[in-house]
Amino acid sequence: VLKPLTALGHSAPHTLTLGNITITERFDVALASLALRRGREKDLHKAAKSANLALAEPLRAESGTPFSSFWMTPEMWMIEADFAANEDIAALLKAHFSDAASITEQTDAWVRFDIASPGLTRLTERLTNLDLASCTPGFASRTVIDHLGTYLIKRSQTEITLYGPRASAQSLLHALEVTAASVL
Amino acid sequence: MSQSNRIAASAITGQIDRSQTLRFTFDGKAYTGHPGDTLASALLANGVRLMGRSFKYHRPRGPLSAGSEEPNALVQLREGAASEPNTRATVAELFDGLTATSQNRWPSLAFDALSINDRLSNFLTAGFYYKTFMWPAAFWEKFYEPIIRHAAGLGAMSRLEDPDSYDKGFLHCDLLIIGAGPAGLVAALTAGRVGLRVVLADEDFRMGGRLNAETFAIGEQTGAAWAESSLTELASLPNVRLMPRTTVIGAFDHGIYSAVERVSDHLATPLAGKPRQTLWRIYSTHTLLAGGATERPIAFENNDRPGIMLAGALRAYANRWGVAVGERVAVFTNNDDGLRTATDLRGYGVDVVAVIDSRKEGPLLPGIRHLRGAEVVGTEGRLGLKSIKVRTGSGQTETINVTALGVSGGWNPNVNITSHHRSRPEWREEIAAFVPGPEGPVALIVAGAAAGHFSTHAALKSGAEAARKIAEALGKQAPYVLPKAEDAPLNISPLWAVSHGKGRAWIDQQNDVTVKDIKLAHQENFASVEHLKRYTTLGMATDQGKTGNVIGLAVMAGLTGKSIPETGTTIFRPPYTPVAMATLAGRSRGKEFKPYRLTPSHVWATEQGAVFVEVGNWLRAQWLPRAGETTWRQSVDREVLQTRKSVGICDVTTLGKIDIQGTDAGKFLDRVYANTFSTLAVGKCRYGLMLREDGMVFDDGTTARMAEHEYVMTTTTANAVTVFRHLEFCRQCLWPDMDVQLISTTEAWAQYSVAGPNARKLLQKIVDQDISTEAVPYMGALNISVCGGLRARLFRISFSGELAFEIAVPTRYGDAMIRKLVEAGAEFDAVVYGTEALGVMRVEKGHVAGNELNGQSSALNMGLGKMVSQKKDSIGMAMSLREGMTAPGGYRLVGVKPVDPQASLSAGSHFLEIGAPPVPESDGGWLTSKVYSPHLGCDIALGYLKAGDTRLGHRLRAVNFLINTDTEVEIVSPHFFDPEGERLRA
């Protein structure tokens, strides 16, 4: 049996605490992109309903069971699910959507960091040009952090999720650590 | 006596904390000051007026101002690696242990050998270097330039790595207020109280602007107290962000402003983890510029001696810092504001011996010798002011002994940021100054002294009214009540330069530009304001002419007989004040300039002692040395030979992988690739060639059809991003009607090449399905499982020319997979090879790569012309058929071998006929890639040779003048190894 490693190279995810900032690598989320096939809007939404999947509006994320989603670009979403129960997420979604959507496994394309802090804005304002302070929970957008294309989801006033390119997980974490140190 | 010029606390407390003492040194001598002091105020308190030497003439200079406009008091702060040159002492916040040294002098500040320049001033006038260094021409490089370079500059770089860190960030607000003086504070209160998101930025470490430097009352409080209570209220508002020590340095497009926050400059060393400075990008819906005004001097003979400063600065040192710059003081003014200096100083018991007022009319100050219609026409004092010569209204001259002189020639609104979008300021006669023009940055309003409202009342009113309007524009009512404040007019009668006196009168003290220089520029017809600036250097360097520009313009206007606005305007570029390059870099320095991408086998490869090479952002194993190998060639030769002999494994995750789906995916690929993909069978892959619009090859790679409407494209590592971007452009812009969806999967899969005669045997130990040649034929592609059920992909493709597969597993299993492959390969003596061995094998096989895909080569050049299908349209197809692209005799890819197997080849060598002269006309092409082939036992190369397809077997010279090599070579087929492809189809 092949043993998996996290994006940071650990056998189990680590949590880093820097003052009142915690950075947790998440390893328990399966991801797949889901894009509308041309002219298949009705089929797509019907399938989404059958899968109990709420497709997020632009710049938003939707939580659900078993699938959550966040908006990536027009007519394209990233679907999140519990990894243990949905490891082959692309196949599971395909069963619902058939050829109404293009579905691609993305689980290991990304490193996910959940970041929590009561002073989150002081950290994020040094990382991204997004105006997170004025966004409500559920906001989701692509952004660039230290040259890295990332997706950022505001979970609450004190929590965000960051999806960054997996191969640059250590560089992204380093950027988070350095930035955190400057605001502590 | 320590701090001998500090006014007694009983007379003025100022904005300093006298209960604490800070120690610092200047040029090695120890002094003391207090929290709240600047370096300049502390030195002045200690009786030190001489702080620098001027740029060109090395004239002794002291501070002219008390702010960021300072042209003279430039010092080197700190020591060693943290040393920073050209720092203005007038804004450097004092801290315990500060070390400062003067600059641009040798051997000492008091005795500077290069002050000989001052005696040679007749030869060093404006533009002297344009005339002086013209002949003999040969002297320029060896003689003139070294001397000029040695003499140029002010401070010195430490040439050591900056020990500090820097940060960057992004702020968003409804209203950015630049400047926290009366206008800025009242605007922040007005907007903040109704809930607008306000950022209030001020370059000073103590907010309040001139209120801290004046004795005005606002309401029932002093101005400074009102500022403090306003700031206390603002600090309590969660929607208001106060940013002292933050200079807004520029206005950019779409309401974006840039600001530098000096986070740690007031500390001996930054706190752990804290940056020294932060560069902020501020996104504001509205902006209020309340940056105040800068006082300007009057030009008169020898007006640059230490002790002569702006009248507003002289009283700021007294009112804010409790410093009397001199024990005997005079004031020279052309406006009522200058009179305040005399009044304030006298109030502290300073001996104000005279007020020299150039205006003939008006009331006299009570109790002070107030000379109307008088001018200062000269001064004395080599290292500091000792006396002034005054020409009275009746024409008499008189020498008055003074140690400080305050000069006020009026005030210039700080229009700088309004002109960053090329808006030209407008002249306002009643204040004799330029005010912001109407075409400044969109959504920027100017208030307070920056808009020409010089009285406190007018500043408050304009600030509050501006905030009310902005709030209204954002849908909020923001009423305000103004506190009572002075509303006195400036009453200026312009005087730019005193006409009496024969000596030099300074206009721009930083660049040593005098009235005579302006006259010379006019005489030589450099009268345009742009020519004037460049000919004389007026307004250049760290202060950007904040104190000198308008005077220079006025003097030129006087010479031309035009009005000042007719003569020209002066505008400014970012940054408002100098910015350290490190601040612009922020966190992006050294190895942190860019992120790295690590392959799934990185940890394992590191354990093996692999040598890594940067490929884009990826770190790839270049070779993996084993014990006993002392050169890279030994490792690479072993990896190549063992792969060809048995089996080798290589991490190829870095190749771009793009998932392409949709009912039009095949048609889409037909258009972006030169060859056809819509006919590719499911379960097969095909080599594809992608052209640019101009017909040149853009990229190559294999694309597999995994299902009817699903393809997986691979790209080169280098072009992964650009190809994806290109495909998105095609999808979104060229053919938006197509049903195609794209997403990168490069990092989702860990992909390994397994190549060599034993590749199948090795993989079969891992793969759950049959991978015989019947089940997985050459160029087969299929979804499989490995190790008892893990989903995976298998592609039978070869870059090495061997029987080869690429196997992909989800990246989290990549580390386990490389270990499993090595373990399974042990019985075959499997080797893991790096990019060097990969390169050797691809050259042996004649595959093109980055060196051949150089952006200037067509498919025909590469010997792949037949791949460009003319049965369909595709990007670049039409252009690839241009006559010049297809003419016989063009470059063709060839193989190259040295005639002497012991001889070396070098990439970049050019082909010459044997006996041909080494001139461009003889150039036959060049070697693109060269490797040592352990299989053939000699260097081999690929190259582009004119008519190369007709020259197999010919002998030529490969000449490289850069390394002086000249090697006889034989032109051969580029397929050095297994030209029939029997091994890869095995």
Structure description:
The complex is a heterodimer of chains A (184) and B (986). Chain A contains 4 helices and 11 strands; from the N terminus they run βββαβββαββαβββα. Chain A is of the alpha+beta class and 184 residues long. In chain A, the strands form 2 sheets. In chain A, strands 1-2-8-11-10-9 form a 6-stranded antiparallel β-sheet, covered by helices on one side. The longest helix of chain A is centred in the last third of the chain and has 15 residues. Chain A starts with 14 loop residues before the first strand and ends with a helix. Chain B is an alpha+beta fold and 986 residues long. In chain B, strands 8, 9, 12, 13, 14, 15 and 28 form a 7-stranded mixed β-sheet that branches. In chain B, strand 8, helix 5 and strand 9 form a beta-alpha-beta unit. At the A-B interface, strand 3, strand 7 and helix 4 of A face strand 8, strand 15, strand 31, strand 39 and helix 20 of B.
Strand content of chain B: 25-35%
Measured on Cα atoms, how large is the radius of gyration of chain B? 38 Å
Through-space gap between termini of chain A = 43 Å
Oligomerization status of the protein chains: heterodimer
Note the main sheet of chain B.
Answer: 7 strands, mixed
Spatial order of strands in the largest sheet of chain A: 1-2-8-11-10-9
Using CB atoms under 8 Å apart, which protein chain pair has the greatest interface? A-B, 53 and 63 residues
User: How would you characterize the largest beta sheet of chain A?
Assistant: 6 strands, antiparallel
Number of helical stretches of at least 4 residues of chain A: 4
Derived from helix and strand composition plus strand pairing, the structural class of chain A reads alpha+beta
Task: Give helix % range of chain B.
Answer: 10-25%
Average pLDDT of chain A, rounded to a whole number, is 97
Low-confidence stretches of chain A: none
List low-confidence stretches of chain B: none
